[in-house]
Amino acid sequence: MSTRTTEDAVWDALRSVLDPEIPAVSVVDMGMIEDVKVEGAHAHVTFLPTFTGCPAIAVIEDDIRAGVKNVGGVEEVTVTPSFDPPWTTARITEEGRAKLKDFGLAPPTGEGPVLITQIGLPEVAICPFCGSKNTRNDNAFGPTPCRALYYCESCRNPFEQFKPI
Ligand SMILES: [Zn+2]
Asked: Ligand 1: distance of its center to the CA of 135 in Å?
């Protein structure tokens, strides 16, 4: 393991930093980490906030800083949010998608027809349990500003859906 760098160790640490909005997935699963650079004992992490308007950005920043600070050889951590490139749900890893599904949260599929209403919710949400599109929006505001609550008419399970950006 002599080829293992501090940079690798930082990535490992980030894999245990959970998304405060969705504690089932890490910031790496969510595809939020854009860049990791280590110069001497100074680690720079650039992350892409998932949902603008979510109050979690400062929390994620603190969590990343705390997680990376524990890495051996790292004394200083700079965490920079970036909106370039913008985060999209396409950045969620395969592993992240599987975890979201286990968590009962449907990753946005990008499958049409997705009609955007005035409040930005998809008209059609696909049930993560049975794959049915026969679902209805239960609560436009959802449990958090980033998620909406749906109910599947086919298997009668409630589930949550990301609000698209
Ligand atoms: Zn269902």
From this structure: 8
